From TrEMBL, chains A, B:
Residues 62-245 form the IclR-ED domain. This is IclR family transcriptional regulator. PROSITE patterns: HTH_ICLR, ICLR_ED. CDD domains: HTH_ARSR (cd00090). Residues 2-61 form the HTH iclR-type domain. Keywords: DNA-binding, Transcription, Transcription regulation. It comes from Kitasatospora aureofaciens (Streptomyces aureofaciens). One of its GO terms (biological process) is negative regulation of DNA-templated transcription. InterPro entries: ArsR-like_HTH (IPR011991), GAF-like_dom_sf (IPR029016), HTH_MetabolicPath_Reg (IPR050707), Tscrpt_reg_IclR_C (IPR014757), Tscrpt_reg_IclR_N (IPR005471), WH-like_DNA-bd_sf (IPR036388), WH_DNA-bd_sf (IPR036390).
Amino acid sequence: MSQTVTRALRILAQLGEGERSLDQLAEVLGVHKTTVLRLLQSLEEERFVYRDAAYRYHLGAGLFALSGLALEQRGIRRIAAPHLAELNNATGQTVHLAAYEGGEVVYIDKFDSRHPVRMYSRIGLRAALHSAAVSKVLLADLPLPERRRVVAGIDFAPHTERTLTTPEALLAELEKVAAQGWAQDHAEHEAFINCVAAPIRDATGRVVAAASISVPDVVLPYEQVLDLLPQLLATARAVSADCGRPEAI
Amino acid sequence: MSQTVTRALRILAQLGEGERSLDQLAEVLGVHKTTVLRLLQSLEEERFVYRDAAYRYHLGAGLFALSGLALEQRGIRRIAAPHLAELNNATGQTVHLAAYEGGEVVYIDKFDSRHPVRMYSRIGLRAALHSAAVSKVLLADLPLPERRRVVAGIDFAPHTERTLTTPEALLAELEKVAAQGWAQDHAEHEAFINCVAAPIRDATGRVVAAASISVPDVVLPYEQVLDLLPQLLATARAVSADCGRPEAI
DNA sequence: CCATCATGTTGCAGCATGTGCAACGAGGGT
DNA sequence: ACCCTCGTTGCACATGCTGCAACATGATGG
């Protein structure tokens, strides 16, 4: 593990919260400002940061460029986008696309609701493994050993009264999800938000991503969210078909 | 300047071109694989990279998250977005938003054309300083000393027959742009693309960003691109007004 | 079924490189 | 004109990065 790189990344994280001066960064990192300066120079050279006329450092455009490349590399995102946009348009609700990567579930695309009350989320953020509907869909498809391993590593922090709080409960839920082909989050993560999620499969049948609809209670009650399930499943099947999955056509 | 950080960022750049194995990265960087491994471990910890089941490294979600934060921080982007979307919708053409940062001009937002023939660009990429219309708008507002300094540093690579190839020609063009309040790129960057760009100003009157319309020749001839200028200028004024610029209201 | 290969990981010694200090310089406010 | 703040530079020291070599693991093929 590289101390230097870790420090550089901590600088980026800091700048993610807003512009910073050299001294501010030095203080937060607990290192001498000379050290910070040189890290920043390297970051600036690659356009990960830039500094304005007032010598404040900001996140730079190299980051956007790289992030754009990273998102483009996920073929699933490009394939799914038109279908998810259509689902978003048809339902008017927030639609997410999430993928499993390295023991986490991450949102890789998002289409915002047209309602004024909206769920907070952002591309790149992690979904809670034990409560988000997309997580259930993705975990449910993992081979059992890995599924157990991941579940064992979860911090079962209760977000609401309905949050599953034991590995056993989650594993049972995942079995159910795998069997029925979709997952729900009935106020398990946020007290006033319900979600449904469905798997997207590639030609080999493996789940490569999950699509979900998230609706605040005040917009639609739980039962009516379940009514959206057929549309969601149709969308997921359509994306799967575009991924080359024969049965889904 | 930190060798270690520079190497880490080179790793990210590599991964931007596609997945890589440890050995591949070691070879490209010209360092021992042990070294690469430890850099990757630090990057992985902050979710800048992740590795799949086949031990291939990919760009990770931490990057998306940070990039999202960075874009959110640019208030101008949020302010401009609805106006640019409307312009995109009204004209059907590709609309860009660009900003000057640290001696470069960078695209910070983009709304794609509905035409099948589209200009290639991506958020985060640099615009050519001596040919892109947005660059002219942004450079034209710099204080003269900095303007001269930046122009002196440009590599006047000719992209097409019409590309300006001398500092003098560019400086003269910038004077003209500053006077008329908009800029054009008449096939100076890509032989078959014409652009017009307009400045967005904040309350102090400084140009904080530039909006542009880019149209391939085959879609609209040059003269008709100029016909779009009134709409573009109206959009730029509307965004400026939202930025608090009194005269623009 | 074992041999071989390819690839990732670990321990360790040496020294390159990152680090902090102190002095310097530039800009802004009083 | 002075001081105060904040970024930059030169330098000596030792931290922590680097490469080597040995080990571990999983895949491939005879």
